[in-house]
Write a structure and sequence with these properties.
The structure is a homodimer.
Chain A: E1 2-6, H1 13-22, E2 26-31, H2 34-42, H3 53-64, E3 68-72, H4 79-89, E4 93-96, H5 103-106, H6 110-134, E5 139-145, E6 163-168, E7 175-180, H7 188-207, E8 211-216, E9 218-220, H8 246-256, E10 260-263, E11 269-274, H9 275-287, E12 297-301, E13 304-307, H10 308-319, E14 323-326, H11 343-347, H12 357-369
Parallel strand pairs in A: 1-2, 1-4, 2-3, 4-5, 5-8, 8-12, 9-11, 10-14
Antiparallel strand pairs in A: 6-7, 11-13
Helix pairs in contact in A: 1-9, 4-6, 6-7, 8-10, 8-12
């Protein structure tokens, strides 16, 4: 298959591109390198020293013998170039990661709210309309988010995969209707993925575009077998308050001797997936597209759920790190249950990589190896959901000396 | 009240601005004159000779003694100017008409699809984020569309006003949940209004923006008491295949001796509202905003429903016009029932102006007065929902001589 990876230089896109290339697919990455540009804006870098995309691709060719092509393209702003490219590239499938993907960044400022809406909505719609105009019959796989569902909407019922059947009262008694799970986005970022859903439903119905929407949990881990083949292939590891995701942040914090930053009570329950499973899910989704005329297929791309304070406790017990309870910059419930269905991926062969000491250690080790690259003033989350909400002061302003933790640190094996 | 009318130069915005000014409100119109620019693109003009906005406002001052201010502003592209303007203007309320509003135009080409998405989504989001950033506590009234609901979703139950309560199955039995009526947009234009709904829900919840969304039916008629005060205040009358709405098109067609263009069987049932009631609804909505923290208030802004072929028959019987059954350029059900609730506006004092011979005659008369301005080659609808769909040839290529119709024409009284 010829697969286009839109956003193939990013945290999920890069390992997905390598995984698909490694499987023998012909891969082309399209990316505007916006994630690197946001690093410049936020004055922070990936904890891991990621290499320029050209070097990444050269090294991949050296270690794998496989070619990945690269096109620098801004999906939101270069719609006509995209429409012209599709007939030339003739893809069999397209994976669409090309959206601003951090909830805190999306709430950081009016500018970042607008950027997130403008970029994400236009990227998705430019793609859909380009597929239609160019007559490209490629299966489209899109990275959505569990955050479209909100938390706690469906009571004791597990969150279904995209759709649910409800009873609608009518004068002739209740009628059953299948609906897209009602949207309950918690940030402007999550909002964009709910807007995407409606655009997908329309283009699937009107133009028979074949679309799969993957509602992904929080990705943790950083390396896949492919990114680990050479240090120059290393994946991003974001630890800052905007782009860092909770479990990776805890592991980084443990590695540098920073208390684990829990917002509010830590009673938030979230769904997780390891980066290795993420790439496998993309593969499975590509192999199982919907038929033309079908409504968008929705998978919940998650393997397990955990409460944030339990994760902090676990990482603390493994590493001796302390926990700091900080004000929550988000507007969200302090405590929530979460019960998510993920039957479809399991039925299609996904073998979940669940939280294990080994993997936590591997990830903490990666963090430890690059600890000198941490700017501790970038750790505290400061993007607030409404003006005036309290945030914490920096806990550390300088990188602490490397000291053994009371619980006995895991050795750094490299 | 100081009311901003965004899109106040358009078909609904202009009569709404005059109506509110006439009631004694302080009115400022913001508009980028995009509707006039689209006329240039489509090579067609309003049947009525609308005057430049500056002249409109000068004449209004002469005939009413009231001042309406005008700011030329592109809501989608001049977000920062908008944010800066709000604290200077200090509005009490804002009416948001500033979106591309024709379903056929939104399906006309890839460019027009993208324009509709980009313009409408950004206009709404730039406004919401500007209200938040500037701390402007103005009630926001937005013009939505009945088309967000689709047709026939709820079986024999009438379409509710925005929200409905459904039963969701859980392991502990059904639980009741109020949901936004599931979106079922029939075009890219209607899609944008479903995207607006989700943005409204988010900003109402996160930022306590007070929002009213008006799901409007098809507007017919052209004049209000205010626009009729001077010919230079005349409202738009669109008759072309993209912007003309069904009943006004029939009346124009009857006035020039063109067969009434019914698409498909004409079994489509649609909701209607006269332009006079539209302005009154805007007034009522402004008087009854939701409280801060409330979810968006949704009104169905309609007064009656009719089947398209019944309207053609009615206009035909009044005027002697024949009916031409043409291929339908839209993807939609050939026949549908429609039962819509509009209790809220009725309870708040709306007295519906329903279809009457007198009003039809008034509108046909307006069309007849300006019949020399019709370009008959612009009448046939040619924007198709999918490439390759059939459209009709022009029925007339030149304006026919004025001939009495067999049923005896209504006299033109001017």
């Amino acid at each position: 298959m010829h697969v286009l990876i839109l956003g193939g230089d990013g945290f999920c896109g890069w390992p997905a591109a390598l995984h698909l290339s490694d499987l023998g697919h012909d891969v082309t990455v399209l990316d505007n390198l916006s994630r690197r540009a946001i690093d410049l804006e936020l004055e922070v870098e990936s904890l891991t020293p990621i290499r320029p995309i050209g070097e990444r691709l050269r090294v991949w060719r050296q270690v794998s013998g496989r070619e990945i092509r690269f096109v620098r393209l801004d999906l939101a702003r270069e719609a006509e170039r995209l429409t012209a490219l599709l007939p030339a590239l003739r893809p069999d499938a397209i994976v669409h990661f090309a959206e601003q993907r951090a909830a805190p960044y999306s709430m950081r400022s009016t500018t970042s709210k607008r950027y997130t809406i403008d970029n994400n909505v236009r990227a998705t719609h430019n793609l859909l309309s380009a597929l239609v105009q160019s007559g490209t019959d490629a299966a489209l796989v899109h990275l959505g988010t569990m955050g479209v569902y909100g938390y706690g909407w469906s009571g004791s019922a597990p969150i279904p995969e995209g759709y649910l059947t409800v009873k609608v009262p009518t004068p002739d008694g209740d009628v059953e209707r299948e609906i897209l799970h009602p949207a309950s986005p918690g940030s402007v970022y999550h909002l964009t993925k709910t807007l995407d859903q409606l655009m997908f439903a329309f283009y699937a119905a009107n133009d028979q575009v074949r679309i799969t929407d993957l509602h992904q949990g929080i990705v943790w881990g950083t390396q896949t077998p492919q990114t680990a083949r050479d240090e120059r292939l290393v994946n991003r590891f974001d630890y800052d308050g905007d782009y860092g995701t909770v479990l990776n942040r805890f592991l980084m914090q443990a590695a540098i001797g920073h208390p684990l930053t829990v917002h509010g009570s830590g009673g938030q329950t979230r769904a997780f997936i390891h980066v290795r499973d993420m790439v496998r899910c993309i593969e499975i989704a590509l192999q199982n597209p919907p038929a033309a005329g079908d409504k968008p297929k929705v998978f919940n791309q998650v393997t397990e759920s955990h409460r944030v304070r339990d994760l902090a406790k676990l990482v603390g017990s493994l590493t001796g790190a302390s926990v700091a309870h900080l004000p929550n910059p988000r507007r969200e419930a302090d405590e929530n249950e979460l019960n998510v269905r993920n039957d479809q991926f399991l039925a299609l062969g996904l073998e979940p990589t669940t939280l294990s000491e080994g993997l936590l250690e591997e990830c903490r080790e990666t963090a430890g190896r690059y600890r000198h690259r941490v700017d501790p003033t970038k750790i505290i989350a400061r993007s607030v959901w409404r003006a005036g909400m309290e945030t914490a002061e920096d806990i550390l302003t300088e990188l602490p000396e490397r000291t053994p933790s009371p619980a006995g640190p895991m050795p750094e094996r490299r």
